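Practice problem 4.
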């Protein structure tokens, strides 16, 4: 398969990051991850985090921000912060109710992203939205993901979270096909029958089909492993997930 790099969403090891940012980043690098996606900066200066990652051979594969960080003039400060971090992928990972409680709210949210993507693109960066379960459950007879992706500027990418699509009873394989070229980064997360806690590669996800689509039609530049539930301790879990993904990609 194509040589798409693999990063870790650091929310997966949030407690470890809260205790020891440099030590946790080193352990992640030692596991063999190519990069990391931040979920908060843990009171560090973004340039200092960029230097830590560079010293460890980790690329910054993204960072999650609140929606108000991209609204109006706030986008300019957000761009500057992420330039200092060395991050080219600004992603909003969910929305308060007023942005997502109706089809009309989703259309207004799409307008916010469409307004922000211009300056982000001018800065040679990318703007995306990350789904949870609700984006793939019916709302007023429509699927919110379709409302958003259909209304937003096509330069805005969808960060598809595979596990959450399965949780909603929907099909991520079909959705990778539905919006070709618009999944710049993808969250590699599995789903167990009965919502059981499983590691990536040990659930129901059709990874062969998913990886093939990421590498042929979806425009994917990063696979980002995220593990939110832990059948084993978090650091052990994310190391096992990486081993499973590497094995699947080598098939």
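Answer key:
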């Amino acid at each position: 398969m194509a040589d798409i790099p693999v990063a870790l969403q650091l929310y997966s090891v949030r407690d470890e990051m809260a205790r020891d940012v440099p030590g946790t980043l080193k352990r992640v690098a030692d596991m063999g991850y190519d990069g990391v996606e931040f979920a908060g900066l843990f009171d560090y200066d973004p340039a200092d985090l960029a230097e830590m990652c560079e010293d460890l051979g980790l690329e910054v594969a993204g960072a999650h921000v609140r929606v108000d960080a991209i609204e109006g003039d706030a986008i300019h400060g957000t761009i500057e912060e992420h330039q200092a971090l060395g991050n080219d992928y600004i992603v909003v990972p969910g929305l308060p109710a007023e942005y997502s409680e109706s089809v009309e709210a989703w259309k207004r949210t799409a307008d916010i992203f469409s307004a922000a993507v211009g300056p982000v693109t001018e800065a040679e960066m990318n703007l995306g939205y990350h789904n949870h379960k609700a984006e793939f459950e019916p709302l007023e007879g429509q699927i919110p993901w379709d409302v958003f992706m259909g209304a937003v500027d096509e330069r805005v990418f969808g960060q598809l979270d595979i596990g959450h699509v399965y949780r909603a009873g929907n099909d991520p394989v079909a959705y990778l096909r539905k919006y070709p070229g618009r999944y710049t980064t993808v969250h590699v997360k599995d789903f167990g029958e009965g919502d059981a806690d499983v590691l990536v590669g040990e659930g129901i996800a059709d990874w062969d089909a998913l990886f093939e689509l990421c590498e042929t039609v979806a425009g994917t530049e990063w696979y980002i492993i995220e593990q939110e539930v832990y059948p084993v301790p978090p650091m052990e879990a994310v190391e096992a997930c990486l081993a499973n993904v590497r094995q699947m990609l080598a098939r």
